[in-house]
Amino acid sequence: MTRETALNALLGLGLLAVALTAHAAGWTFTVTLATKVAILALAGAGLNIALGFGGLVSFGHAAFFGIGGYAAGILASHAMFYEPLVTWPVEIEGTRAMPVIWLVAMAASGLAALAIGALSLRTRGVFFIMITLAFAQMIFYFAISWPAYGGEDGLSLGVRNTFAGLNTLDPLSFFAICYTLLMIVLGLTALLRCSAFGLALDGARQNAERLKSLGIDPTRVLLTAFCLSGMVTGLSGALYADLNRFVSPAMLSWQTSGEIMVFVILGGVGRLFGPLAGAALYIVLEHNLGGVSEHWQFLLGLLLLLVVLFARGGLIGLVAGERRHG
Amino acid sequence: MVPGCGSISRNARGTPVTVSLLFEQTLNGLQFGVMLFLMAAGLTLVFGVMGLINLAHGSLYMAGAFACAGVAAATGSYWLGLVASLVAAAAAGAIIEVVVIRRLYDRDHLDQVLATFALILMFSEGTRWLFGSFPLYLDLPAALKGAVRLPGGIDYPRFRLALIAIGLALALALMWLINRTRLGMRIRAGEADREMIAALGVDITRLYTIVFALGAGLAGLAGALVGTVQSVQVGMGEPVLILAFVVVVIGGIGSIKGALLGAVLVGLTDTLGRFLLPQAFALFMDPSRATSIGSALASMSIYILMAMVLVWKPGGLYGGANGS
Amino acid sequence: MAEPVLQIRGLCKHFGALRASDNVDLDLMPGEIHALIGPNGAGKSTLIKQIAGEIAPDAGTIRLAGRDVTASGAVARARLGLARSFQVSSVAGEFTVLQNVMLAVAGRLRRTYRFLRPALADTKLTAPAREAIARVGLADREGMRAADLSHGERRTLEIAIALALKPKAFLLDEPMAGMGPEGARSLTHLLDGLRHEAPILLVEHDMDAVFALADRISVLVHGRIIASGTVAEIQADAVVRAAYLGEEDA
Lengths: 326, 324, 250
Description:
- The structure holds three protein chains of three kinds.
- By secondary structure, chain A is mainly α.
- Chain A has one domain.
- Chain A has 13 helices and two strands; from the N terminus they run αααααβααααβαααα.
- Chain C is of the alpha/beta class.
- In chain C, the strands form two sheets. Chain C has a six-stranded mixed sheet, with helices on both faces. A four-stranded antiparallel sheet of chain C has the order 2-1-4-5, covered by helices on one side.
- In chain C, 48% of the residues are buried.
- Chains in contact: A-B, A-C.
- Chain B: Belongs to the binding-protein-dependent transport system permease family. LivHM subfamily.
- Chain B: Keywords: Amino-acid transport, Cell membrane, Membrane, Transmembrane, Transmembrane helix, Transport.
């Protein structure tokens, strides 16, 4: 077992332990924080597929996070008011069932990623960063100016959506749902990285020209990864909507894109559990520095700057050393 | 929140499209465009010469606006405020270049994005610390108040005309600087070939600081000017930064001419889209729905423009190389 | 008469006033090694890039295995059976030798879009990859990162990658570059055996290797083919001696 594997286990079990301990002690708020960590880690895990494995610096993942959130919000609000979502050609009702909401959220954000990715991947490098940022901003403004689902004020979900027989309003039950999804996604991501596709994706990051000479179209590989990445982040957006029982354009803002990226970087780019480490660190900082000073974002900025300038491997890089490979 | 810097008039519902209204909106779009140009010029130069993507450019825009508001309040002179915006933003630019940015030239884009994102957090929070969260408003000097009667009988705000004039004059000055002066020659050489300017014996470190401070100063001035029309507040820079990215993508990275063309295109598309689309939809649906659909679409219009340019010319209108 | 595997007719490419390719005709016949030589700046790299589909010619046609591929991109040509090696070793440095070659096998078998099965457990990928690695003699380096290989081993890895594509034609861009005499000798031996698998268009500066391997040589100078013939014919050609071989002696 390498140090990174040990650290991964520590992170994964640690989050579970925090939630269970907090539940036993009756600290509901801490359980909610642990849930938030799991959800934000999932958002980061999505971005990690594009950024960490494919080298695609997307500054627009808030788009997928928000689309996932709005998918949950829209389906739930239609179900709440018994208004059909679509009446023609077939009548489609809203729903409060989480699994359905998740699938819709992933499909919607995957489609958005396909469209944004297809356009953005016509370029690389710095253009790609600016274009993903711009398209996310477009969706942000659209959400603000489209009045049907709350516009600038956002949309309330009322009570939390349902999952099988669980009481989702119980903090530990909802944590269990989010934690399980995070672990499933991280497991699938681990498999993805070792698969033939993972090989091609890593190859596209390292040397796109070489990939072409092998008869593999790097743009298609990257676009596929970008879609998968958007779908995972979309799923986390749906969970985040349920956590807050509220969605608003803030989920789509450029700050959100920046934060998702910060989770990935603080944890360590391309590390399987990097997003979890990063999201956990972020939430811990937010709640501790936030207590020290209301201007904690200044300190966060300073910390991030120091990490970028002097500790490039992120948290997992610091602990586990040299980047894995093989 | 209206995304544009300075596109005032969301059209009144049901107002008929007259030639004079259209003309007025075109002027608004032009004014918005030249202000965007001041923002985009610095971005595109910094990327073209140093290969750096600077997200904190919006913070320099904000710094200029606050410097103007602070100095104007302290001295009572708007003009001193404008000078202060230019100087403060250029100085802030030079400082962050020396302290942070120059460590990033050899790094990949990801590191640049993160470090400059960190700078945004620090700038925004630092400004909130100093000035508080409430928006500040700038008073116009008497000479720029009121309206001018244009041919066709339109009363157009004097200050907005001044913005167009200042923007265009600065654009011309910048092109003169790049194309006709020694500094400009070095900048162009730096865009073409970084090793070459080192071989020419140019002090690259100083050149980079100058280019960065120049871009920062322009952004700061734009912040002060637009802040005068709207308000001065924390977070004002980033929406404009993203629009400036759209401008750079449309115009092509590193091209001043492309930035000007892109900025004017974006300014006109956004302003005229907001004005015309709701009216166009009103022709075949009821006015309130037309307004909501029209303005939602209008908010997307410049991004659709960007998408079209990407499909047609992925490197931008004036882009030689594909920006990587 | 057999069809040429690769057939180039009237290929032209200008960069401003520079004629990088000037009406180039070139054939690669089954079973042969056709060497392309020429001084630096003669336009060899530009020609290779056009053949590989990385840049488009201004005029002319390129046919691969009987199909006109002039308008196709690099990916399509690779899929039609063109295996290209790169002048500057451009293997994926973070990958092991095995992973580098497996990627080529995945490309050939179109097994790229498999998401959940560990590639290293997929014998359809590993077996052909190991076979190609063994053929070039890198079996004991299989688990090593490509970036940690010696220069000569990386050049050999390039050949293994090309082999794993099981191509209809090899396009080898200076495979000997930077190899020591020992390495050059064993690589020459390896290429010699390769021609029966698929013909090789060999761009090479190492004249010993060219004269040892080539069935035919074409000489490119200022974007034009100034001579084409057997080793003996080219060695005897006065124009070639003046334009090219003379320089080497001087």
